[in-house]
User: What shape does this take?
Amino acid sequence: MEQQLFSIVSYLVPMLLSLTVHEYCHARVAYWLGDDTASSQGRLTLNPLAHADPIGTFLMPIVAQLAGGLPLIGWARPVPVSPHRFTRRVSMHVGMALTAIAGPLSNLVLMFLSVVGLRILSSSTDLHFYELLQLDAAHKAPEHIAAHLLLVMSFMNAGLCVFNLIPLPPLDGSRLLPASLQSLVAPLQAFSYVVLMAILWFAGGIIRIPVAYLLIGAFNVVGLPTELLWWMVHGG
Assistant: This one.
């Protein structure tokens, strides 16, 4: 029970932080472009409770962990955006694209910062990097717990970045499509959850490849070993 509770908390906390930053960045870019809709509704904040969805942010991650890592999709409440309020310096289409890309880019930054944190933590101990990542009954020192949380953060945000760029509504990637294609994929929003779950189940092996390369690139930049990550590419 203790181990299961730890697994839930160590997954839920990074998820809550990652989704909060993701939605905040949507709100911040929209505000910079002249739309104060999110701000007026209290969404231009890093307070997790302002963005959390009871089912998507809490229930789904908990169920996923109780089911042994079942690939369920977690989400926060979408930030409201009114493109007609954007400054006339950008078109509504461009403004929506800029607002949309802010979310995945925030996850990319969080991924890299988490990897930097792993590098700093690894340099501050006498343990080999892979020894630091051991987390069991015999290895529950603060440095092991911190390394575990940072590793979860890095994997989670790489995954959120790639997944949100899938060009299907309501994901951010759909806002990056040309306007003509957006109208073609718009009807899929009614079945979005089923479609996205099917993608996770049947195309998860494809999605994990760009996720792995993002992580491998970040690990290489900071000087961490990458053997841990190549199984994601080769499907091992």
